[in-house]
Amino acid sequence: MEALRRLVRVDQKPIGRTPRSNLATYTGLFDHVRKLLAEMPLARKRRYRAGRFSFNVSQGRCPTCEGEGFVNVELLLLPSVYAPCSTCHGTRYNPQTFEVTWREKTLLNAAI
């Protein structure tokens, strides 16, 4: 403990402009990942920009859950529940976005 100068406690409460923001997006850390992926040959060939690698932008996110990773399931006699998206299985992105790699890593490695 003597070597620590500062400790920051992070909980699961929404931060930033959208409840989907997380620590990596809010601090700008994920911006570097997006820019790096946008510079990859496949991304350049497809003319993907850094925004494509955000689940807040329609081009890269899953069209079913719109980047939420889950869907609201309305039940007739019971309260509604949230379930993982059956299209993206909670990854929030569409398959084309995961095709772009850096050192054999996909956005999925950074997203989960």
Q: Give the C-alpha Rg.
A: 17 Å
The number of domains is: 1
Low-confidence stretches: none
- Named at the architecture level, the CATH assignment is Up-down Bundle
Helix content: 25-40%
Q: Based on helices, strands and strand pairing, what is the structural class?
A: alpha+beta
Q: For the residues shown, what is the average pLDDT?
A: 83
Count of β-strands: 2
Number of helices: 5
Full CATH superfamily name: ABC transporter ATPase  like domain
CATH topology annotation: ABC transporter ATPase like fold
- Biggest sheet: strand arrangement: 1-2
Molecular shape: flat
The multimeric state of the shown protein is single chain
Classified by CATH, the class is: Mainly Alpha
* Helix and strand pattern: HHHEEHH
